[in-house]
Sequence to fold (227 residues):
Amino acid sequence: QKEVEQDPGPLSVPEGAIVSLNCTYSNSAFQYFMWYRQYSRKGPELLMYTYSSGNKEDGRFTAQVDKSSKYISLFIRDSQPSDSATYLCAMRKTSYDKVIFGPGTSLSVIP
Amino acid sequence: GAVVSQHPSWVICKSGTSVKIECRSLDFQATTMFWYRQFPKQSLMLMATSNEGSKATYEQGVEKDKFLINHASLTLSTLTVTSAHPEDSSFYICSAREVTGSGEQYFGPGTRLTVT
Fold:
């Protein structure tokens, strides 16, 4: 079993839709959870950063962490064509541990 | 915000030659830098972790004699792919972690290496 699993997609939604992206993980030691957005041929860009369980909102983006289920989610409201990218979940055990990435979900928002 | 640059952004080299990729933290000091490689439609795979002034720590399966990493200062790390082969063609991404703060990593824009 991989440490971090993520549906690779591709996921295609109409503009304005609510997008739900999810990851599951196997190691209960993970404490820090991140979501990165990566445009084609570019480096990852940090979108959301969460410590332990709970919700965090930033504009159109909401990150949720459920440590009891080992499940994290990223919601994108009012999706825009510019949101079309690959979304990578990532996590680590301590603030200075190496980051483990999920395989990424490819998202296309159709105008 | 924290900015990490990479140079070159794209390089083509002939099989058997070496190529050096630079990673710089532009507006912060980084004690630790990370090197990843990413194949098309795949996630980032950590290759090695480098700490300023000390030897890099390589992940299992990564040849340290092939992928030479130097982290000579708090703002610069280099990755040299020696005796490159076509199978080394990939997208190489570095990230840098601040000396202070949350320990968050900031990623560079990546370098696309094509070995012919």
